[in-house]
Design brief:
The protein is mainly β and 201 residues long. The chain has one domain (25-200). The chain has no helices and 15 strands. Strand 12 and strand 13 form a beta hairpin.
Length: 201
Protein backbone atom coordinates (compact mmCIF):
# COMPACT_ATOMS: atom_id res chain seq x y z
CA UNK A 1 0.00 0.00 0.00
CA UNK A 2 1.47 3.37 -0.95
CA UNK A 3 0.53 6.43 1.11
CA UNK A 4 0.67 9.60 -0.94
CA UNK A 5 0.80 12.47 1.60
CA UNK A 6 4.25 14.00 1.18
CA UNK A 7 5.44 14.57 4.77
CA UNK A 8 4.09 13.96 8.28
CA UNK A 9 6.11 14.11 11.50
CA UNK A 10 9.41 13.57 9.72
CA UNK A 11 8.20 10.49 7.77
CA UNK A 12 8.08 10.61 3.99
CA UNK A 13 4.66 9.12 3.30
CA UNK A 14 5.31 8.97 -0.43
CA UNK A 15 7.43 5.88 0.27
CA UNK A 16 6.01 2.37 0.01
CA UNK A 17 5.37 0.59 3.30
CA UNK A 18 5.10 -3.18 3.70
CA UNK A 19 2.46 -4.58 6.07
CA UNK A 20 2.48 -8.05 7.56
CA UNK A 21 0.12 -10.01 9.80
CA UNK A 22 -3.65 -10.00 9.83
CA UNK A 23 -5.47 -6.78 9.02
CA UNK A 24 -8.48 -6.51 11.31
CA UNK A 25 -11.71 -4.58 10.96
CA UNK A 26 -14.54 -4.58 8.47
CA UNK A 27 -14.05 -5.01 4.74
CA UNK A 28 -13.90 -7.92 2.35
CA UNK A 29 -11.37 -10.50 1.21
CA UNK A 30 -11.14 -12.01 -2.26
CA UNK A 31 -11.55 -15.77 -1.74
CA UNK A 32 -12.08 -17.32 -5.16
CA UNK A 33 -11.85 -16.36 -8.83
CA UNK A 34 -13.04 -18.41 -11.79
CA UNK A 35 -13.02 -17.87 -15.54
CA UNK A 36 -14.21 -20.88 -17.52
CA UNK A 37 -15.35 -21.47 -21.09
CA UNK A 38 -15.83 -25.21 -20.48
CA UNK A 39 -19.38 -26.55 -20.80
CA UNK A 40 -20.28 -27.99 -17.38
CA UNK A 41 -23.48 -28.86 -15.55
CA UNK A 42 -22.61 -26.62 -12.59
CA UNK A 43 -19.90 -24.61 -10.87
CA UNK A 44 -19.51 -25.62 -7.22
CA UNK A 45 -17.84 -23.44 -4.60
CA UNK A 46 -16.60 -25.79 -1.88
CA UNK A 47 -16.10 -25.56 1.87
CA UNK A 48 -12.54 -24.39 1.16
CA UNK A 49 -14.18 -20.99 0.59
CA UNK A 50 -17.62 -21.22 2.26
CA UNK A 51 -16.85 -22.09 5.88
CA UNK A 52 -16.84 -20.81 9.44
CA UNK A 53 -14.36 -18.01 8.64
CA UNK A 54 -17.07 -15.78 7.19
CA UNK A 55 -20.80 -15.56 7.80
CA UNK A 56 -21.50 -13.35 4.78
CA UNK A 57 -20.26 -13.35 1.17
CA UNK A 58 -20.46 -11.32 -2.03
CA UNK A 59 -20.39 -12.86 -5.52
CA UNK A 60 -20.04 -10.78 -8.69
CA UNK A 61 -20.07 -12.52 -12.05
CA UNK A 62 -21.36 -13.31 -15.53
CA UNK A 63 -22.81 -16.61 -16.85
CA UNK A 64 -23.95 -18.01 -20.21
CA UNK A 65 -25.93 -21.18 -20.93
CA UNK A 66 -25.90 -23.68 -23.78
CA UNK A 67 -28.97 -22.33 -25.56
CA UNK A 68 -31.84 -19.87 -25.46
CA UNK A 69 -34.32 -19.54 -22.58
CA UNK A 70 -31.95 -20.39 -19.72
CA UNK A 71 -32.31 -19.40 -16.06
CA UNK A 72 -29.43 -19.05 -13.58
CA UNK A 73 -30.10 -20.87 -10.31
CA UNK A 74 -28.32 -21.63 -7.06
CA UNK A 75 -28.36 -24.31 -4.37
CA UNK A 76 -26.40 -24.85 -1.15
CA UNK A 77 -24.30 -27.58 0.41
CA UNK A 78 -24.91 -28.56 4.04
CA UNK A 79 -22.47 -31.00 5.60
CA UNK A 80 -20.85 -31.41 2.19
CA UNK A 81 -24.12 -32.57 0.56
CA UNK A 82 -26.03 -30.58 -2.06
CA UNK A 83 -29.53 -29.66 -0.85
CA UNK A 84 -32.08 -30.39 -3.60
CA UNK A 85 -35.34 -30.78 -1.68
CA UNK A 86 -38.13 -28.24 -1.29
CA UNK A 87 -36.36 -26.46 1.57
CA UNK A 88 -35.99 -23.04 -0.03
CA UNK A 89 -38.16 -19.95 -0.38
CA UNK A 90 -37.51 -17.62 -3.32
CA UNK A 91 -38.77 -14.51 -5.07
CA UNK A 92 -37.75 -12.64 -8.21
CA UNK A 93 -39.12 -9.66 -10.09
CA UNK A 94 -38.30 -7.58 -13.14
CA UNK A 95 -37.28 -4.09 -12.16
CA UNK A 96 -40.21 -1.81 -12.88
CA UNK A 97 -42.36 -4.80 -13.69
CA UNK A 98 -44.97 -6.93 -12.00
CA UNK A 99 -45.84 -10.61 -11.77
CA UNK A 100 -47.71 -10.23 -15.05
CA UNK A 101 -44.47 -9.15 -16.75
CA UNK A 102 -42.33 -11.80 -15.10
CA UNK A 103 -41.74 -12.75 -11.49
CA UNK A 104 -42.50 -15.41 -8.93
CA UNK A 105 -42.78 -16.07 -5.21
CA UNK A 106 -42.30 -19.64 -3.93
CA UNK A 107 -42.25 -20.76 -0.29
CA UNK A 108 -41.41 -24.41 -1.00
CA UNK A 109 -38.87 -24.58 -3.80
CA UNK A 110 -35.90 -26.74 -4.74
CA UNK A 111 -33.45 -23.88 -5.46
CA UNK A 112 -32.09 -21.04 -3.34
CA UNK A 113 -32.72 -18.59 -6.17
CA UNK A 114 -33.67 -18.21 -9.80
CA UNK A 115 -32.03 -14.95 -10.83
CA UNK A 116 -33.80 -13.99 -14.05
CA UNK A 117 -37.57 -13.82 -14.47
CA UNK A 118 -37.49 -14.74 -18.17
CA UNK A 119 -35.11 -16.83 -20.24
CA UNK A 120 -31.83 -15.34 -21.40
CA UNK A 121 -30.44 -15.76 -24.89
CA UNK A 122 -27.80 -18.30 -25.79
CA UNK A 123 -25.41 -16.12 -27.78
CA UNK A 124 -22.30 -14.40 -26.45
CA UNK A 125 -23.31 -11.27 -24.57
CA UNK A 126 -26.87 -12.47 -23.95
CA UNK A 127 -25.95 -14.13 -20.65
CA UNK A 128 -26.60 -12.86 -17.14
CA UNK A 129 -24.54 -10.55 -14.93
CA UNK A 130 -25.23 -10.90 -11.21
CA UNK A 131 -24.31 -9.23 -7.96
CA UNK A 132 -25.35 -11.50 -5.04
CA UNK A 133 -24.95 -11.08 -1.28
CA UNK A 134 -25.15 -14.29 0.77
CA UNK A 135 -25.85 -14.06 4.52
CA UNK A 136 -25.98 -16.22 7.65
CA UNK A 137 -23.81 -19.14 6.51
CA UNK A 138 -23.07 -20.05 10.14
CA UNK A 139 -25.83 -18.22 12.00
CA UNK A 140 -28.21 -20.89 13.28
CA UNK A 141 -30.64 -18.26 14.57
CA UNK A 142 -31.49 -16.97 11.10
CA UNK A 143 -31.79 -18.92 7.83
CA UNK A 144 -29.08 -18.70 5.19
CA UNK A 145 -30.29 -16.28 2.53
CA UNK A 146 -29.28 -14.26 -0.52
CA UNK A 147 -30.28 -11.04 -2.26
CA UNK A 148 -29.23 -10.00 -5.74
CA UNK A 149 -29.49 -7.81 -8.80
CA UNK A 150 -29.12 -9.04 -12.38
CA UNK A 151 -28.91 -7.93 -16.02
CA UNK A 152 -29.53 -10.25 -18.98
CA UNK A 153 -30.65 -10.20 -22.61
CA UNK A 154 -33.33 -12.10 -24.51
CA UNK A 155 -32.40 -14.08 -27.62
CA UNK A 156 -33.11 -10.91 -29.62
CA UNK A 157 -30.54 -9.05 -27.47
CA UNK A 158 -33.20 -6.92 -25.72
CA UNK A 159 -32.01 -5.91 -22.24
CA UNK A 160 -33.74 -6.92 -19.00
CA UNK A 161 -32.92 -6.40 -15.35
CA UNK A 162 -34.27 -7.80 -12.13
CA UNK A 163 -34.02 -8.35 -8.43
CA UNK A 164 -34.13 -11.69 -6.66
CA UNK A 165 -33.82 -13.27 -3.24
CA UNK A 166 -33.94 -16.63 -1.57
CA UNK A 167 -33.48 -18.39 1.75
CA UNK A 168 -33.59 -21.72 3.46
CA UNK A 169 -37.06 -22.05 4.95
CA UNK A 170 -37.38 -21.14 8.63
CA UNK A 171 -37.57 -24.82 9.63
CA UNK A 172 -34.03 -25.19 8.23
CA UNK A 173 -32.59 -22.09 9.88
CA UNK A 174 -30.08 -24.14 11.90
CA UNK A 175 -28.43 -25.56 8.76
CA UNK A 176 -24.81 -24.42 8.45
CA UNK A 177 -23.99 -23.81 4.78
CA UNK A 178 -20.56 -24.91 3.54
CA UNK A 179 -20.82 -24.64 -0.23
CA UNK A 180 -22.68 -23.16 -3.18
CA UNK A 181 -23.74 -24.52 -6.56
CA UNK A 182 -24.35 -22.23 -9.56
CA UNK A 183 -26.14 -23.77 -12.55
CA UNK A 184 -28.68 -23.28 -15.29
CA UNK A 185 -32.20 -24.64 -14.75
CA UNK A 186 -31.45 -27.12 -17.55
CA UNK A 187 -28.47 -27.90 -19.73
CA UNK A 188 -24.97 -26.61 -19.09
CA UNK A 189 -23.15 -23.44 -18.16
CA UNK A 190 -20.91 -22.74 -21.15
CA UNK A 191 -19.14 -19.62 -19.84
CA UNK A 192 -18.63 -18.32 -16.33
CA UNK A 193 -16.53 -15.54 -14.89
CA UNK A 194 -16.99 -14.61 -11.24
CA UNK A 195 -15.29 -13.58 -8.03
CA UNK A 196 -16.31 -14.52 -4.48
CA UNK A 197 -15.50 -12.27 -1.54
CA UNK A 198 -15.78 -12.99 2.18
CA UNK A 199 -17.23 -10.07 4.16
CA UNK A 200 -15.43 -9.43 7.45
CA UNK A 201 -17.63 -8.69 10.47
Amino acid sequence: MALTKVQADGINLADTFAFSGTVSGSGMDLLYTLTSSSSVSAHDISSTYINSTYDNYLLVGYFEGDGDTKYLQGQVFVGGTIQTGNIYSTENERIGGSYSTGGSNNNTYDHLFTANTSGMGGEDGEGISVNITFQNANNTQSPFCCSGFCNWAFSDAVHNSGIFSGALIVANRASVVNGLRLKMHSGNVTYAKFKLYGLRD
